[in-house]
């Protein structure tokens, strides 16, 4: 599945649009991680426990979005964005969304073709 933040995919022609797809999770903050992160924050710098939790959340929501797009028949997602917010002081919401589409590589010699799309088109 191709996922891009742009509204189009260079070298690809979008033939169908299935609409918005998303993935969402709400995570509670672990008391131990919060306490440890609080102590680390005193000295400044990265908070690896919270960084790891956010990384895992983003990975989870991306997978959920991809599954939704595949269920609709899409092979790509354009205009992908992340959003995160706090709900109270103990929960964090992480959301990803984009537009599910069907995109085909443009073969060599056609307007809009790129070396990558030409190579992929020649394989398929």
Your description of this structure?
It contains three helices and four strands. The protein is an alpha+beta fold. Helix content is 38%, strand content 37%. The protein starts with a strand and ends with a helix. A hairpin with a 3-residue loop joins strand 3 (76-87) and strand 4 (91-105). It has helices at residues 31-43, 48-72, 115-123; strands at 2-3, 12-28, 76-87, 91-105. It has a four-stranded mixed β-sheet with strand order 1-3-4-2.
Helix content: 25-40%
Q: How many strand units?
A: 4
Q: What is the typical, i.e. mean, pLDDT?
A: 87
Unreliable stretches, pLDDT < 50, 5 or more residues? none
Q: Calculate the terminal CA-CA distance, rounded to whole Å.
A: 15 Å
Précis, in short:
The chain has three helices and four strands.
List the helices and strands and how they pair.
Elements: E1 2-3, E2 12-28, H1 31-43, H2 48-72, E3 76-87, E4 91-105, H3 115-123
Parallel strand pairs: 1-3
Antiparallel strand pairs: 2-4, 3-4
Features:
124 residues; alpha+beta; four-stranded mixed beta sheet; 4 strands; 37% strand; elongated
